Amino acid sequence: MTQPGALPAPPVRRIAAALRGSLRERYDARALRADLMAGIVVGVVALPLSMALAIASGVAPQHGLYTAIVGGFVIALLGGSAVQVSGPTAAFVVILAPIAARFGLGGLLVATLAAGVILFAMGAAGMGQFIEYVPYPVTTGFTAGIAVVIGTLQLKDFLGLTVVRMPEHYLERLGALMKALPTLRLADVSVGVLTLAVLTLWPRINRRVPAPIVALTIAGLAPLAVARAMPGFAVATINTRFSYEVAGVRRPGIPREPPRPVLPWRLPGPDGAPLRMNLDLLRELMPAAFAIAMLGAIESLLSATVADGMTRRKHDPDAELMAQGIGNVVAPFFGGVAATGAIARTATNVRSGARSPLAAVFHSFVVLSAVLLLAPWLGYLPMASLAALLLMVAWNMSDSHHFAHLLRVSPRSDVAVLLTCFTLTVVFDMTVSVTAGVLMAALLFMRRMAEVSGVELVGEGHPALEQPLPRGVVLYDIAGPLFFGAAQKAMRSLQAMEGRHVRIVILDVEHVPAIDATGIVALESLVARLNEGGIKVIIVAVQDQPLRALARAGWRNRKGRLRIFRSFERGIALAHRTAAAFPVERRAPTAPLPGG
Predict the structure, then answer these.
(1) pTM for this structure?
(2) What pLDDT was estimated at residue 589?
(3) Greatest CA separation found in the chain?
(4) Per residue in 431-468, pLDDT tens?
(5) In whole angstroms, what is the distance from residue 70 CA to residue 429 CA?
(6) Can you tell me whether residue 589 is helix, strand or coil?
(7) Distance of CA 315 to the CA centre of its chain
(8) What pairing do the DSSP bridges indicate for beta strands 340-341 and 86-87?
(9) Less packed terminus of the chain by CB within 10 Å, N or C?
(10) Could you tell me the domains of the chain?
(11) H/E element holding 458?
(12) What digits encode the pLDDT tens for the residues 38-63?
């Protein structure tokens, strides 16, 4: 991690330092065995999820597998978190599906590549820490909204519906699904319900064997057994939905081969023909790339934070963003779609005993081995069972109990942000939701800061005063940050104080941690008005940031008008000396405070 005030290390050095930090602890055969076992468990979990998420994103299942293999491998080696597992995630579905529908596979991979460049630039610029400032109601709202959209998208395959064309927007999608209800297929529904039942009940029986493997194995074998007894029984599977071409021959399912190098812009566009790269296409894809990068940054750093809490380690957010960027640049050249840190797979990795990034590397090899050895059998997986798996993922992602709890106990302003982000995510998209949510949260934060900022006239009871203030000297305590949301309110409070004849005004700013340009202008205006009335201003107990800001703004001590002290005591002593120079009998009525 970069120390405060230090220049950030070069990107390559930051990544290397993060990798060395992950392996700094004593690493022996026992640790290697633990990483290997964790990698096997996570790889088994990632295998069906990667296919299901690719299908939900509008591409063939092998592209999800390639993402886990290539993206997961690269990001694990370079990432700033020792135990994070990266790959395709459910949160990306709502972004990737419209891109794939509009621009085809080629456009989706080009957008992913551009997002990788953005992510790397964010990490190199040291922006990893800023993700921490996304308010919790915003992340909770858009996460729950994404879960609703994902769950809705799975109804088509779960119910076996026939939908000619799935619209791009949520409300239209819902309408299309409602119209397609008469095409419901009981065979697909039965397989989907069976899968959900096993996914729900198996963890209560055995937690060592991942529930998705048991559920999908049963769901894959059950239709074959039923079809023997009932010849007309059939369900949609990967083999019936997808195919690939080898030597000019179309074959069902997914290819039994590793990810091969490919130029993303030469892959099919929306019309099935190779994509035509030009400036107009890049311009159209940039908003999508930005959305992928923003969601990838947020989700990967949230996942890394979860891992920190489980392992009591500290990740390097900038190195993690750069690694995510490199992974998303490399993966499209091997047919992989967008990858980011996967919270559920990372948690599984930690619970399985992972010690270093090698566990996530092993997870990639497990997925690769499954592609090479099991591809023909993976084609028998029912589409309804994969939809059921994502329905379970969406339910867990929504965290409905926590969402309801926040609605009950949070302040009304946070509830408004939460519901706004949730609604905008469902009706529009995640980019609109996060933008509006952060803006709302920022405005509400400014209002709260303005409420706690203020000015108080301090009497003789100030704890730091060793003796009473002389006549004609008053002390005001300014509290709270003086930024553009609070400065004017604080200054108005001071100007509205009861007028009294004074010669010196002391402003105690010990409790002002920060000041911005608006605060400086407001304070300057106040000092000018007081000086015009013949009143000297002494500012005491100035903290570091306000002192630097005032210095940059050209503030200097002005004899008889303004003095600035870091020390409270020195400012008070000057006030006593100055007041003593004006005997009481010589004091003429002086100007009142502004507002008096």
Answers:
(1) 0.77
(2) 43
(3) 115
(4) 777 778 778 877 777 676 666 666 666 665 566 677 78
(5) 28
(6) coil
(7) 15
(8) antiparallel
(9) C
(10) 29-184+279-364+391-403+413-442 (no CATH), 453-586 (3.30.750.24)
(11) strand 454-458
(12) 999 999 999 999 999 999 999 999 99
